[in-house]
Inverse folding.
């Protein structure tokens, strides 16, 4: 799989994503935000970081970059887009995903390992996991509090488009297990077509046991399986 | 061309949760300000815009709000023209 | 030496050089005489400002330079010692590491958020201007009592400032330390350390090489931020409202991130021959130091420097400390290439001058020479002083104070343990480091929360371990021993994870060296560091000196913070501080001597900072280090944790609780022949608590014995969520480990949830 | 007791670098808004305070600014009373 990692000037997880693709047997390539060209891409990653400093609102400025025009077109044609952390914020601002990511309930930056629960495995992003599987991955964000109007959230739930939820050590959703205060403990979602996924936790930092977790591998494996499977283009 | 001073206020939409507002509310209560009943926190953006008319300047600012300065999902905005005049002292950043 | 050819024109608005103005610039009569001799004429106002900055304590190391020469700086693995922007060591596999620590104490006292943020910014620039990509930061902090509202304001602001800056740039925090003690009431300490990685043959230095090469100002524009120079008067300034003159530098981490990437790309392109941060004393120090290092001169026209505000004077432009700016020396003819790289990163670059062959630091304003100074006296000629040092009687008395009532005190030991674990000094620092991104770059093998942190080097199994340590109370009571303990503790923290201690950076935070009692502390502390570093073969490759940390004549505790790096051969084999298995043997390496002087127990339960601090046997420490490294490399251990503040009991609590994932009960019996308080809470050095499978115990004991390290089993790890039980003679402690967890993890959050006060800073 | 609506504006002090303003300015230029000459970003805090008089409410808000809402070293503040009245719809956070 050929995966393009978009680098905005303030991206700081582009290298981590690049490596995660390599570790998953894919061929990563960077795309500078001012450049264009996704014709060779099987998938795109919008990595974490602070794209343009994010002083105004996370992701607000990044969506105007030339590369993003291509990413939006790529997504509209069904191309897989994985939007991690700041990438999730950018994808929401760009209208690729519904809702918005507001300040954490604590008004502090959160950096720790977070328990997550896989809500559905029937997607190109989660097929390598077990239904209901509990994962642990690093989170690192100040604006990860997912909000959308109630109708939108109901539809996400009904369509099975909530992929991941924040849970506590027992695997249950709870106030304590949802530190940033996201609506219905949502940690990751996908768009209607299922080809754009946004998530706040970092699978790209959970690829090797020596750094604490391998629970992020499944996301990349699922994507690889989808791209290499019989239905692949 | 005149230089207009505008103020853009971007505020969290009513009904939506406002974590900074809530945190400040909590802190004010802890400091003993019990009469505080609600706190909401927004952003104020002061713009200096060169435009042929105040109307034009305001129109541009409103466009900027829709495009960049506010998030349509979570925020409302309001533009007001504060004044007009000559180029100020001090260059920009 | 000075070239007679150039005519220096005083500016019409310059104030007259009077003895008062000279004094306001922090220069003594004798120092001013030296300037006159070096110039052969009177300096202009601009020149006086330049000299005053370069001969300040910060740039000139007036009162510390002679002492710093006592530190060992050499070893085969040292690539770059003190003197450059950062020290550089070879860590194997073709990799080198640049690292340094820097203080931002005073700015943080005035504005904690920006002060701390810009401190991080500055130290990162020192690293990436060496051509190294920052891979980790640490921070060493000191505040007053956390029960005080203003202290909470300072602490909260500093932590957020460090976090927001480092998180945005994308550098993981690997660790650090924080202490709360009245000794730092009005003078917080904020020391930031950074570590960067490069190929060992890729070093670039801050030297202005190549006559005719071009000087370029890169990055943010220059504003009137942080201009020192006391109460000078200039026409331009008095026009404005003096009160509005900004005293605070504001950090812009996004611009820093761009500068970081642009600098590394510039260095990689070969289009530049030198690069340096415009840090303290801004353009003046960067330009003159770069000229000085290459033995060349520079010529700058301040009118070409991009400014943020109108009508800035040469004095202001030369001395501004606006953040996120760099000075770059471009090869002649490759300026366009430099500009192209900077434009890619959305940064500004401006040609402001060139390298000359006459050894002069020459400044023009629209072509008119406003300063023309020989660079050597400027950068090397700062007079250095050796001062009289005498120990203060008061401290001597405190040290000799009899603490037998503390040792023999009785009472509820379980309650006392809970009190200690709820002291912010001993409680978990989770509240703080959870605001720092610790996992970005996906290479953090051991994150904050135990002892030393470990980060993996890309494409290898090798890692770098890092720690910062210093107990200011020990240093206050016995500066030389306290400083040696700081080095020994740092090394112990490193060997606990399995790293070989390799090199040191240090930050000397002290009061005014003009006072004999303080100068005594400074000299003694340097001697203590020197002795320990020499013995441990951990050369000092750099550091920072922060003096005059005083308010109303009251100085901070002498605080020589040690930042130490170690090399880990195999990151798959590191050892952590938390117990891992029920049934494991708990083993103590080293001996308890029951020392209570300067202890946390005496502070928390008797409100005392007194007594003779623990002794330190450096040779025994050395043996202990070797034994520990061998044990970790042979994979014998389940955990290892150094005994520090709070003594053995607190070490056992920390290992039982880990970072809160899982808590183990323990069953420990101590048979030392001393009273329970020193048995549990004495702070003897040279001790490490390890745990291992019972079947490996014999091997552990044998290995310790072969290094002459005392080693006994003291108990075992019991069930998760079980009882935490230590018997010491006829008394002891016994409580559910859960209660300890509540105290340990709850202490700082509980305090930080109560309101802080943001009353104006004393000197704002 | 009446409930007062107040607005507190907190703005970065002149002469200090304003990174958010700088970033927005830059972004607006890239979007083609070349007539924008300066951008500065501050906070707006809306308070509802129960107090016996508007004067009293304003006095308290000013005190809150000094104690909590503004940074005395880097920011200036300004308090205005927007209105008074009954308890609004939607209660506080
Ligand atoms: N200011 C800080 N920043 C980051 N981590 C910190 C800070 N203070 C403490 N820590 C982390 O908390 C843990 C415990 O600190 P400390 O008690 O000083 O450890 P030790 O006694 O082993 O030196 C360490 O992992 C340390 O890195
Ligand atoms: Mg320590």
């Amino acid at each position: 799989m050929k995966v393009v990692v978009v680098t905005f000037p303030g991206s700081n997880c582009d290298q981590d994503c690049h490596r995660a693709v390599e570790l998953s047997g894919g061929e990563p390539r960077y795309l500078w935000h001012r450049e264009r060209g996704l014709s060779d891409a099987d998938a795109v990653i919008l990595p974490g970081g602070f794209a343009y400093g994010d002083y105004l609102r996370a992701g607000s400025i990044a969506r105007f970059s030339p590369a993003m025009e291509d990413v939006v077109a790529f997504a509209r044609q069904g191309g897989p887009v994985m939007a991690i952390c700041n990438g999730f914020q950018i994808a929401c601002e760009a209208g690729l995903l519904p809702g918005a990511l507001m300040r954490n309930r604590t008004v502090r930056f959160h950096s720790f390992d977070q328990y997550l629960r896989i809500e559905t495995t029937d997607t190109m992003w989660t097929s390598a996991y077990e239904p209901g599987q509990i994962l642990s991955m690093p989170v690192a964000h100040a604006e990860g509090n997912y909000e959308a109007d109630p109708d939108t959230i109901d539809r996400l739930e009904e369509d099975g488009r909530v992929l991941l939820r924040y849970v506590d050590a027992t695997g249950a959703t709870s106030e304590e297990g949802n530190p940033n205060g996201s609506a219905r403990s949502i940690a990751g979602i996908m768009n209607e077509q299922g080809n754009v996924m946004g998530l706040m936790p970092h699978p790209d930092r959970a690829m090797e046991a020596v750094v604490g977790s391998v629970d992020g591998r499944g996301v990349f494996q699922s994507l690889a399986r989808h791209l290499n499977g019989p239905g692949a283009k | 061309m005149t230089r207009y001073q505008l103020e853009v206020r971007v505020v969290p939409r009513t009904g939506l949760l406002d974590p900074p507002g809530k945190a400040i509310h909590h802190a004010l209560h802890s400091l003993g300000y019990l009469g505080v009943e609600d706190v909401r926190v927004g952003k104020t953006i002061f713009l200096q815009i060169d435009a042929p008319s105040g109307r034009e300047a305001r129109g541009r600012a409103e466009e900027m709000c829709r495009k960049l300065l506010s998030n349509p999902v979570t925020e409302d905005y309001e533009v007001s023209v504060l004044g007009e005049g000559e180029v100020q002292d001090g260059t920009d950043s | 030496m000075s070239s007679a050819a150039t005519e220096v024109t005083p500016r019409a608005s310059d104030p007259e050089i009077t003895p008062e103005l000279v004094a306001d610039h922090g220069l003594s009569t004798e120092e001013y005489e030296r300037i006159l001799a070096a110039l052969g004429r009177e300096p202009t106002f601009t020149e006086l400002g330049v000299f005053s900055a370069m001969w300040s304590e910060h740039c000139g190391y007036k009162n510390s330079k002679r002492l710093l020469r006592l530190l060992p700086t050499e070893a085969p693995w040292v690539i770059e010692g003190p003197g450059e922007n950062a020290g550089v060591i070879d860590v194997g596999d073709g990799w080198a590491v640049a690292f340094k620590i820097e203080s931002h104490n005073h700015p943080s006292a005035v504005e904690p958020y920006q002060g701390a943020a810009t401190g991080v910014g500055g130290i990162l620039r020192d690293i990436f201007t060496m051509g190294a990509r920052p891979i980790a930061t640490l921070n060493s902090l000191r505040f007053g009592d956390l029960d005080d509202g203003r202290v909470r304001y300072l602490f909260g602001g500093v932590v957020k400032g460090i976090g927001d800056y480092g998180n945005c740039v994308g550098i993981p925090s690997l660790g650090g330390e924080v202490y709360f003690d009245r000794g730092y009431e009005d003078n917080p300490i904020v020391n930031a350390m950074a570590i960067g990685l490069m190929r060992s043959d890729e070093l670039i230095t801050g030297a202005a090489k190549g006559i005719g090469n071009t000087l370029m100002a890169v990055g943010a524009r220059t504003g009137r931020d942080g201009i020192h120079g006391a109460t000078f008067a200039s026409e331009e300034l008095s026009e404005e409202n003096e009160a509005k003159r900004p005293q605070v530098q504001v950090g812009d981490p996004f611009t820093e991130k761009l500068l970081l990437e642009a600098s590394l790309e510039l260095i990689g392109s070969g289009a530049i021959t030198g690069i340096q941060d415009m840090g303290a004393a801004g353009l003046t120090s960067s330009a003159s130091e770069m000229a000085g290092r290459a033995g060349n001169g520079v010529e700058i026209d301040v009118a070409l420097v991009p400014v943020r505000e109108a009508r800035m004077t040469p004095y202001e432009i030369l001395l501004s400390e606006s953040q996120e700016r760099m000075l770059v020396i471009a090869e002649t003819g490759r300026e366009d290439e430099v500009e192209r790289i900077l434009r890619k990163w959305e940064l500004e670059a401006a040609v402001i001058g060139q390298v000359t062959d006459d050894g002069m630091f020459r400044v023009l304003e629209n072509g008119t020479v406003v300063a023309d100074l020989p660079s050597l006296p400027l950068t090397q000629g700062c007079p250095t002083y050796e001062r009289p040092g005498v120990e203060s009687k008061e401290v001597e008395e405190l040290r000799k104070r009899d603490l037998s009532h503390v040792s023999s005190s009785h009472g509820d030991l379980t309650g006392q343990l809970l009190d200690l674990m709820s002291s912010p000094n001993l409680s978990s620092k989770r509240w703080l480091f959870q605001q720092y991104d610790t996992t970005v770059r996906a290479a953090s093998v051991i994150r904050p929360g135990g002892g030393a942190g470990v980060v993996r080097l890309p494409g290898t199994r090798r890692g770098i371990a890092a720690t910062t340590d210093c107990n200011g109370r020990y240093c206050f009571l016995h500066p030389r021993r306290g400083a040696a303990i700081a080095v020994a503790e740092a090394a112990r923290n490193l060997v606990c994870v399995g790293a070989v201690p390799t090199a040191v950076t240090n930050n000397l935070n002290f009061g005014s060296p003009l006072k004999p009692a303080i100068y005594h502390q400074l000299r003694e502390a340097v001697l203590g560091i020197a002795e320990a570093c020499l013995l441990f073969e951990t050369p000092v490759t750099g550091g920072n000196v922060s003096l005059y940390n005083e308010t109303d004549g009251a100085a901070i505790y002498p605080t020589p913070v040690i930042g130490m790096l170690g090399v880990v051969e195999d990151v798959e084999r590191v050892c952590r501080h938390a117990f891992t298995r029920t049934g494991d043997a708990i083993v103590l390496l080293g001996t308890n001597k029951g020392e209570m002087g300067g202890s946390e127990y005496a502070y928390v339960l008797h409100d005392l900072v007194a007594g003779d601090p623990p002794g330190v046997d450096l040779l025994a420490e050395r043996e202990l280090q070797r034994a520990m490294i061998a044990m970790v490399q042979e994979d014998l251990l389940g955990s290892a944790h150094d005994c520090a503040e709070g003594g053995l009991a607190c070490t056992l609590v920390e290992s039982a609780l880990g970072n809160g994932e899982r808590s183990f009960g323990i069953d420990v019996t101590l048979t030392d022949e001393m009273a329970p308080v020193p048995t549990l809470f004495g702070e003897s050095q040279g001790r490490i608590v390890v745990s291992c499978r019972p079947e490996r115990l014999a091997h552990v004991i044998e290995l310790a014995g072969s290094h002459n390290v005392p080693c006994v089993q003291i108990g075992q790890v019991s069930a998760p969520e079980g009882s935490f039980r230590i018997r010491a003679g006829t008394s002891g402690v016994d409580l559910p480990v859960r209660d300890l967890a509540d105290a340990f993890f709850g202490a700082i959050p509980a305090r930080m949830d109560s309101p802080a006060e943001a009353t104006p800073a004393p000197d704002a």
Observations:
- The first strand of chain D starts at residue 2 and ends at 12.
- Helices of chain D lie at 19-30, 54-69.
- Residues 2-85 of chain D form a domain with the Mth169; Chain: A , fold (CATH 3.30.1280.10).
